[in-house]
Design goal:
The complex is a heterodimer. Chain A has 10 helices and 72 strands. By secondary structure, chain A is of the alpha+beta class. Chain A has 5 domains: 308 residues, Methylamine Dehydrogenase, Chain H, CATH 2.130.10.10; 302 residues, Methylamine Dehydrogenase, Chain H, CATH 2.130.10.10; 106 residues, Immunoglobulins (Immunoglobulin-like); 101 residues; 134 residues, 2-Layer Sandwich (Heat Shock Protein 90). Chain A has a 5-stranded mixed β-sheet, with no helix packed on it. In chain A, strand 16 and strand 17 form a beta hairpin. By secondary structure, chain B is α/β, with parallel strands linked by helices. Chain B folds into 2 domains: 134 residues, Rossmann fold, CATH 3.40.50; 56 residues, Arc Repressor Mutant, subunit A. Chain B is 52% helix and 13% strand. Chain B has a 5-stranded parallel β-sheet with strand order 2-1-3-4-5, with helices on both faces. In chain B, strand 3, helix 3 and strand 4 form a beta-alpha-beta unit. The chains are: A alpha+beta, B alpha/beta. At the A-B interface, helix 4 and helix 5 of A face helix 1, helix 5 and helix 10 of B.
Chain lengths: 1035, 212
């Protein structure tokens, strides 16, 4: 440029020369807004080492927002954060590895074409394979495209085919021996590239017509032929014949074929095949050995035939990070352009952070805002060079540039001019020119800060030397103010009222008002460390340091913390914008605090501010410039905000920040447990028993800034609340029990707006048999049954014991009876005979004879009676009579003497009782009847015998005066009521005896004898459950 | 005791396992001029042996003895000496025992309670070649003359029942099925006109089907 000649007289000449040569070749006329240059776009690359496939030649986005990436090393899905190779264990494997084409289907599936032939369809974890057996032509699948009827077409090396049902049908095999590429344009016309020519068929026709041809069809054709549709509907292709625009068969007025750069003037030859793409902003993207972008409007407006050489604005970016040839181009639903390369994957996306493409500066730029939206940028070259240059930038355009000395500090004067300080002296812009005034004395050290106070005096902070007040061409160390710290300020500024603010190391700020110096330090609550930024020109004073950020309320400093309790570190630039927002440039990036938050934190010292952060994800190239030159953040009069980072200058236009993208869709990919992966289908998943650990993989379908997507999940049935996932894309669970679960995921956009519907997956962990409800129920039942059995066994033991005793008693009786019979009775018979013989010898007249005879008569009677008794002992005569009848007889006899209503009844089928039980029961019942008749003053008395299945029950009740409670419980009035005797009898039978009585309410005596004891034989069909639970019948 | 053969006197053999009873009988007979006690025995075998030795005119035979029953002894003696005249002594009146005894060849039947008054007369009656049945026993025999007799097996079953044994136990002891016991019981009850098992046992004891 025109300055070149004058540069030679400066030291460091060749360095500067290099800068300016760089400037020459730089596209310096850059605009803002949507028309960002290729380098200004936010670019990010992923290499093979980060999981990307090699030689990415196929890209597609399924309806869930997932990007599918196909290459020679296989297929992966990509959510913007990580690649997940397909297939994972448990997935159905693909039929080949080398993926050459991809197409998403409207129903959420993905079509996959392979380099060595074959097509697969993947949907909901199910894979369907197609090959030549299904009618698909053999060879590389170049392209898979949908027509407007929803039919899928495959351009295969072996020809063109479309899918009907589950079979492929070869189309136009005569005219299309090979299909090198295909496209369906907006009119529904199908375009197919074949050997040496391009054919097209409209939606309403059934034949193809030739639309273009070139070279020798036998030898001159590429392996693959890409198509792209321009915004005006024209179809373009790019071959080694050049960039070709073709007429459509539906064009009413064909304007002829246009070939751009048919001679390879642009140096594009030898790169083919290479992809091309028109994006939604009408740029033409070209792949090949570099990524190129052309504003297509200029191409489209040209008349035909096209012979543009070179095209006006061709951008060229070779990506060093993941470079190699660009062999696939794809625009996703969010407008990001994806580039598949030999070594990985790249993404270009629009950015809120715009890199200012300034000429290279060997060290750093120093900034100062001028009037009318001007930004002054001075290059401060690397030490020891003292030569730099100054740019005047207005409206995004460098309007002027001049060579200068080296400046390390800048200050935007409220009067619209700019001041720069450096070793060379003090620079001041006057009418667009920088006028440099040497310092009064030679300066050896860098200038840290420069500012002009209201009196017009310049305050210069010199490293290691301190601050000097320059007025009327003279230095005055520390401005003659003894109270100022004897060290160099890091930052200097002047507030709205004209007071000078000087920031020092170690929490020290000096406020200078004329001669008055006020030292504000930790005693005023200042706790930001070394003070590296002061913003005082607005109505508030803000202070930043390497440790934090604070507001000065006039007396004290109030620290400001972020919502998460974090402090703001390394703040070297503060802007309180004209619209009242705060912007901080710090180590963590650029922080934005909205106006309502600023207002709130200005009155509420405890409020933790909500912030918006822009960092490397947004395209901020590096952390805030620290130490020098500062301040690192400046607002120009046009409202643009400039931030100096260690990696260059960026600007933000606050009025054009793109926000509030809708929350992205979320997808749950798989559930894994102990190494087994279960693809998620539409149906409920059933996991095997004993599953306790789970890993659930999910993701959000946002490809622009996935790092900013918030995700949270909840496993209903385990998590009581939502879990914040952060950047994780998987959830882990341990100690899950059997049951039904629902896993829900929701996503938020970068603003924190949640997509409340999200997605959910239901699954069931099957219970082991011992985890089921019926098992628990069964256990309880078994326990109850066992208890019942134990009770029963115990009862039987007791009964057997009692019965054993009864049997003993019976046997004893029998033995006694036999003894009596055999010994006593027989002996008595003998004795009587002898006495008879003796008596016979007594003369009849003797009185002794009579005595003897009478004694013998008595002996006979006694013997008779004894014999009867012995017989009774064997089997009591009365046991013939049923118990009720016996009781009835006893009652009726009593009723003769006591005129009381008496009734005896039987319930159940009378059964034979054990003789002793019967006897005891009868005695007990008789006792009870006697009590009732004699003592109760009853009007009615009844006796009832119930022959139950499990017990014999005998009840005697009256409606008389009842028994005194004390007596009832004491039961001691011997000989009167006989209660003790009754209880003893009951106890002998192991029976329950209940005596219910109340004064005036009568008495009821209730005897219950267990069946095992009571009955001689257990009844027909009555069951006894033994230990082993088997039925035992006794008859 | 005299063993002399006096044609004038009735020669008597007394068989009973109870010494006191034998002594009582001996004392009564001793004073009678027309009777002489030629022998005594306290069990069945001794009785048969004594009969062979003494050839008594009249034998007094207790029905219950430790080794064999009086009925068996009567049968044995009558087989050897068909003209033997035997009077049965028993404690209880019961038609079955009496019938059995008569069938075995007994000529007289005396309850022990009647001995004092009727022994001598009965001996004389029997010796005179007549038979003697007490009125009480005769009545019972008449009463049950038309009844079906219990079979041997039924008596065994009833014996078990009388001992308080369960069907199962009885079946096990008799080595027959439990259900067979029930069949027997069903047959026993109407034969004895009994209403229950206990009743049947009672009747059986009374009638002498079972011993006390």
């Amino acid at each position: 440029m025109r300055l070149v000649g004058t540069l030679l007289k400066h030291v460091g000449l060749y360095l500067i020369g290099l800068y300016l040569i760089g400037m020459l070749f730089c596209d310096c006329a850059w605009s803002l807004g949507t028309d960002l240059t290729l380098p200004q776009l936010n670019h990010k690359g992923w290499s093979v080492s980060e999981g990307a496939p090699r030689e990415v030649s196929a890209l597609a986005q399924t309806t869930d927002g997932t990007l599918w990436v196909g290459g020679t090393t296989g297929l992966s899905r990509f959510d913007g954060i990580r690649f997940v190779h397909y297939p994972q264990p448990a997935d159905e494997p693909l039929q080949a590895t080398d993926v050459s084409a991809l197409a998403a289907s409207a129903d959420g599936g993905l079509w996959i074409g392979f380099r060595f032939g074959g097509v697969s369809f993947l949907r909901n974890g199910r894979l369907t394979r197609y090959g030549e057996r299904e009618g698909l032509p053999g060879g590389t699948v170049q392209t898979l495209v949908w027509d407007h009827d929803g039919t899928l077409w495959a351009a295969v090396a072996g020809g063109l085919a479309c899918l009907h049902g589950q079979r492929w049908q070869r189309i136009a095999s005569e005219s299309i021996p090979m299909a090198l590429g295909a496209l369906v344009d907006r009119n529904g016309t199908l375009w197919v590239a074949t050997v040496g020519r391009v054919l097209a068929r409209t939606a309403h026709e059934d034949h193809f017509r030739e639309m273009a041809h070139w070279g020798d069809p036998d030898t001159d054709y590429p392996d693959y032929m890409p198509f792209a549709m321009a915004p005006d509907g024209k179809v373009w292709t790019w071959t080694n014949n050049g960039l070709t625009r073709m007429d459509s068969p539906t064009d009413p007025q064909p304007d002829g074929h246009g070939i751009l750069d048919s001679h390879g003037t642009l140096g594009w030859t030898g790169n083919f095949p290479a992809p091309l793409l028109f994006d939604r902003e009408e740029n033409l993207w070209l792949g090949g050995d570099a990524v190129r972008r052309l504003p297509s409007r200029e191409l489209l407006s040209d008349s035909t035939p096209l012979h543009i050489e070179p095209p006006p604005h061709i951008e060229n970016l070779t990506d060093e990070s993941n470079g190699g040839r660009a062999i696939a181009l794809f625009e996703d639903r969010e407008g990001n352009i994806w580039v598949g390369t030999e070594k990985g994957l790249g993404r270009f996306s629009h950015s809120n952070i715009i890199r200012a493409p300034l000429p290279p500066c060997s060290w750093r730029y120093v900034f100062a805002a001028g009037g009318a939206g001007t930004l002054w940028a001075a290059c401060s070259p690397d030490f020891p060079s003292t030569v730099g240059f100054l740019l005047e930038i207005r409206n995004g355009t460098i309007v002027n540039q001049q060579e200068t000395g080296a400046f390390t500090a800048g200050y935007g004067d409220p009067d619209g001019s700019a001041w720069f300080g450096g070793i060379a002296g003090l620079g001041h812009t006057e009418n667009g020119r920088l006028v440099v005034t040497p310092w009064p004395e030679k300066v050896q050290m860098d200038v840290q800060a420069v500012v002009r106070d209201r009196t017009g005096a310049i305050w210069v902070s010199l490293i290691h030397q301190g601050v000097f007040r320059l007025s009327n061409g003279r230095w005055l160390a520390y401005g003659g103010l003894k109270a100022l710290p004897r060290t160099a300020p890091i930052v200097e500024t002047v507030d709205a009222k004209g007071a000078l603010w000087l920031g020092y190391t170690d929490n020290r700020i000096a406020r200078v008002n004329g001669d008055k110096v006020e030292l504000l330090d930790a005693s005023r609550g200042l706790n930001v460390g070394n003070v590296t930024a002061i913003h005082a020109s607005g109505k508030r004073v803000w202070v930043g340091g390497d440790l934090g950020f604070a507001r000065f309320d006039g007396m004290r400093f109030v620290p400001i913390l972020g919502a998460s309790g974090s402090s703001f570190a390394g703040i070297s630039g503060i802007i309180e914008s004209r619209s009242g927002e705060l912007w901080l440039n710090g180590i963590a990036g650029i922080t934005h605090i909205s106006r309502p938050e600023v207002e709130r934190v200005s009155v509420d010292a405890t409020h933790r501010v909500q912030v918006e952060t822009f960092d490397s994800v947004d395209g901020v190239p590096g952390p805030a410039q620290q130490l020098r030159p500062i301040p690192s953040a400046i607002e120009t009069a046009d409202g643009r905000l400039w931030f100096a980072t260690t990696e260059g200058l960026v600007l933000i236009d606050p009025s054009r920040i793109a926000r509030n993208a809708p929350p992205p869709p979320v997808t749950v990919w798989s559930i894994s447990s102990e190494g087994v992966r279960y693809p998620v289908m539409n149906t409920d998943l059933s996991l095997p028993i004993h599953t306790t650990q789970l890993q659930i993989d999910y993701t959000a379908g946002s490809l622009t800034m996935p790092e900013r997507v918030g995700l949270r999940y909840q496993l209903e049935g385990s998590d009581p609340d939502w879990q914040d996932a952060g950047q994780r894309r998987e959830a882990y669970y341990t100690n899950l029990g059997p049951g039904r679960y629902t896993f829900r995921v929701v996503a938020s956009n970068s603003e924190g707006a949640w997509n409340t519907s999200g997605t959910s997956v239901r699954f069931t962990i099957r219970p082991a048999f011992y985890q089921t409800t019926w098992f628990y129920a069964l256990c309880v039942l078994l326990c109850l049954a066992l208890l019942a059995a134990l009770y029963r066994v115990r009862m039987q033991q007791v009964s057997a014991h009692v019965r054993g005793r009864l049997e003993e008693r019976l046997a004893e009786r029998e033995r006694i009876a036999r003894e009596l019979h055999d010994t006593l009775l027989q002996g008595m018979h003998g004795l009587i005979l002898r006495f008879q013989a003796a008596s016979d010898r007594i003369p009849e007249r003797e009185p002794a004879r009579g005595l003897m005879e009478r004694a013998l008569e008595r002996a006979d009677e006694l013997l008779d009676e004894s014999r009867a008794r012995v017989k009774d002992l064997r089997a009591p005569v009365s046991s013939e009579v049923e118990l009720t009848h016996a009781l009835a007889a006893a009652g009726e006899q009593l009723a003769l003497a006591h005129p009381v209503g008496f009734r005896a009844s039987t319930a159940g089928t009378p059964r034979e009782l054990h003789p002793i039980v019967r006897e005891e029961a009868l005695l007990l019942g008789r006792e009870a009847l006697v009590n009732a008749f004699r003592h109760a003053n009853a009007r009615e008395i009844e006796a009832e015998v119930f022959y139950g299945e499990t017990e014999l029950r005998m009840t005697v009740r009256d409606n008389g005066s009842g028994i005194d409670q004390a007596l009832l419980h004491g039961g001691q009035r011997v000989g009167h009521w006989g209660l003790v005797g009754m209880r003893e009898r009951a106890k002998k039978l192991s029976a329950h005896l209940d005596i219910w009585s109340a004064r005036g309410a009568g008495t009821e005596i209730d005897l219950r004898v267990p069946a095992e004891v009571a009955y001689r034989e257990l009844g027909r069909g009555q069951r006894r459950v033994g230990w082993w639970g088997m039925k035992e019948h006794r008859l | 005791m005299s063993t002399a053969r006096d044609p004038q006197r009735i020669r008597i053999l007394s068989v009973d396992d109870h010494l006191l009873l034998r002594e009582g009988i001996a004392a009564v007979i001793e004073d009678q001029p027309d009777m002489t006690l030629v022998g005594q025995a306290d069990n069945g075998r001794e009785a048969i042996k004594a009969f062979r030795q003494h050839r008594p005119d009249v034998t007094l035979m207790d029905l219950r003895m430790p080794d064999m029953s009086g009925i068996e002894v009567i049968t044995a003696i009558r087989k050897e000496f068909p003209s033997a005249r035997i009077i049965v002594l028993t404690t209880y009146a019961g038609d079955v025992q009496a019938v059995k005894a008569f069938k075995a060849g007994a000529a007289g039947y005396l309850l022990k309670s009647m001995l004092r008054k009727e022994l001598l007369q009965t001996i004389r009656t029997i010796h005179a070649g007549k038979r003697h049945v007490p009125a009480e026993v005769a009545r019972e025999i008449a009463e049950h003359a038309v009844d079906d007799a219990l079979t041997e097996r039924e008596v065994e079953v009833l014996k078990g029942v009388a001992a308080g044994k369960s069907n199962k136990l009885i079946a096990a002891e008799l080595a027959i099925a439990e259900s067979t016991i029930k069949v027997h019981m069903k047959s026993i009850l109407p034969k004895l006109a009994a209403s229950s098992r206990t009743h049947a046992v009672m009747i059986a004891l009374k009638r002498g089907i079972l011993d006390v």
